[in-house]
Amino acid sequence: MAFLSCEEMLAAARSQKITLAEAVLRSDLEESRLTEAHSRAAMRHLWQVMQATSQEYDPAQRSRSGLSGGDAAKVEQAWQQGRLLGDDYLAAVTAEALKTAECNACMKRIVAAPTAGSCGVIPAVLIPYRKEYPDTPEEEMLHALYVTGGFGNIIAERASVSGAEAGCQAEIGVAVSMASAALCSMMTDDPDTIHCAASLGGQVLMGLLCNPIEGYVQVPCIVRNMAAVPTAVTCANAALAGMDHIVPLDDVVALMLAVGEKIRPCDEAGTYILKKEEA
Question: Where are the alpha helices (DSSP H) in 33-120?
Fold first, then answer.
């Protein structure tokens, strides 16, 4: 994608009077030399894999480390039994985030969006949305993914999406920004409102460390996927309500990069390693 900043991407959408998704698609086609049909087919494949990961979730499966597995099923059961706070959508996004993140820990197929360690966030806002609004055309879901790709690519180019390089803010934090934008784009085509959601999402987890137990991308990584999803929904809602993001996302990304240099993981594996409590 040719855009070097969020402002450049927004300006393209405004000047051409097109959606952000269309601006991202056109830029991608210009750079990749793919046909539009090929680009859309590739994006549709990613969407299908996201859904397949959810559908193929096995609550009996455990990661080889023994640290994760089965928690998404616990959330779904508690939801069905009326033991959870919040509405159906909140329970659904929580369970979806856990499903994908647990599948990653169990070495199953996922879409690294933006990374494997943060793979649960974007599917968790989109899959339940489609179930909540089943008449939503698949093309609209693909447009939301183009929006996530636009913001994610710019952040990766201007800063990082590597926890080992810039802390978990660069993985879960970026995923929240992308998911906030995606969800917001399902409700409005206004590029400034979508940018507001992305900026708010990017501001929330600034400074978050990468600190997995024993180096496995499981604890607290999976629970962070889970907790990130309501945050993304909140940021999207705040933007839709008209809240001011104050700081443009380009500036948020620059700060994230500076903070990442301060909190860069300090061991050979690139992480602040936590130790599992001994029984």
Answer: 36-55, 71-80, 88-105
Alpha carbon 152 to its chain's center:
9
**pLDDT reported for residue 209:** 86
Using CB atoms within 10 A of its CB, is residue 125 exposed (0-12), middle (13-18) or buried (19+)?
Answer: buried
Is residue 143 within 8 Å of 241, Cβ to Cβ?
Answer: no
> In terms of pTM, does the model score above 0.85?
yes
Distance CA 205, CA 201 (A): 8
Residue pair 238/197 in contact by the 8 Å Cβ criterion: yes
* Residue 274 dihedral angles phi and psi, to the nearest 5°: -95, 155
Displacement of CA 234 from its chain's centroid (Å): 14
| Burial of 115 from C-beta contacts in 10 A (0-12 / 13-18 / 19+) | buried
Cα dihedral 278→103→128→59 (10° resolution): -70
Q: How far is CA 146 from CA 5, 179, 266, in A?
A: 16, 11, 35
3-state secondary structure 111-142: CCCCCHHHCCHHHHHHHHHHHHCCCCCHHHHH
Q: Is the pLDDT of residue 86 over 80?
A: yes
- Report the alpha-carbon distance of residue 145 to residue 230 in Å, rounded: 18
Distance CA 24, CA 242 (A): 24
